[in-house]
Amino acid sequence: MRWMLPLLVLAMPIAAQAADPAEGRRLAEQWCASCHLIARGGPGPVTDAVPAFHVIAARPGRTEEAIATFLRTPHAGMPDHGLTLRQAQDLAAYVKAQGGAQ
Hints:
about 100 residues, about 45% helix, globular, mainly alpha, 5 helices, Cytochrome Bc1 Complex, Chain D, domain 2
């Protein structure tokens, strides 16, 4: 019976770790800031053709999970950065954090 606990611990999903919004910001600065306004009052793109992160975060139903899934799903108009699940989760946590009070 004692041998079962280590097996259960190993079987826990790695994705259960908390997302890191600070790492998400670093990723956003690297990959997203040329098209999106990634923080209120921050530098942004020369066009408003794409939504700012705070606008994305405020949309109904935009949970961190929904944003992470969207980021990993190919879609027109956005480059495929080949994000890992962890990178998408970190970036989604940062995007969602931008939806706070104005």
